[in-house]
Design a protein that fits this description.
Strand order of the largest sheet: 1-2-3
Helix content: 55-70%
Largest sheet: 3 strands, antiparallel
Structural class: mainly alpha
Strand content: 5-15%
């Protein structure tokens, strides 16, 4: 499913990245993958996958969610509405957090080919670090840089049955690791 209107807002989303990433650099908290080159495609892809909703809704697991798939934590006051600008800010922050978590799970991640890094961040964004930890064989395949096996493991999971479009997308990113030089 393509959402053409999101492409019109990508320059705006990239401008927001400037305001999110520069303070992180100044504070010394910048994650290994926190650059426009690595995060901008992920933000764009996730905006398409998640779609924008300005009102709180329940995701497929029943969690209150808003914006571009931002899960609202329990016990925190819930906004009734959110602008697309605020949703992009949250998405950039969520992707930054997913990138940091992905780097903690896979310390060599910054040395993987860029498409593989993006696939891992996608998984962490959607499943959380604890969800990705359940992919024992996929994590082993990534650790030995066997991108084909990582793709196969992603596709032979319950996750692939539940969200097949996203799982196939991530598997294709892993397979692109075979075409990319190690960075």
């Amino acid at each position: 499913m393509t959402l053409p209107h999101l492409h019109l807002h990508l320059p705006f989303a990239l401008a927001l990245a400037h305001h999110i990433l520069l303070p992180l650099r100044a504070s010394g908290m910048e994650p290994e993958l926190a650059s426009y080159r690595e995060l901008a495609p992920i933000v764009s892809q996730l905006a398409k996958f998640e779609g924008f909703r300005g009102e709180v809704y329940l995701d497929h697991l029943g969690h209150p969610t808003i914006g571009f798939g931002h899960k609202l934590p329990p016990g925190v006051p819930r906004p009734k509405r959110m602008t697309q600008e605020a949703a992009y800010r949250l998405l950039w922050e969520d992707v930054r957090h997913a990138s940091c978590a992905a780097t903690r799970l896979f310390p060599d991640l910054p040395h993987y080919p860029l498409p593989v890094c993006q696939g891992v961040v996608h998984m962490v964004f959607q499943l959380g670090p604890s969800g990705v930890m359940k992919f024992t064989n996929l994590r082993k395949a990534l650790s030995v840089r066997n991108w084909t096996e990582a793709a196969n493991e992603a596709l032979s999971s319950r996750w692939a049955v539940q969200t097949p479009v996203r799982a196939h997308f991530v598997a294709r990113l892993f397979l692109k690791g075979n075409e990319s030089p190690h960075e």
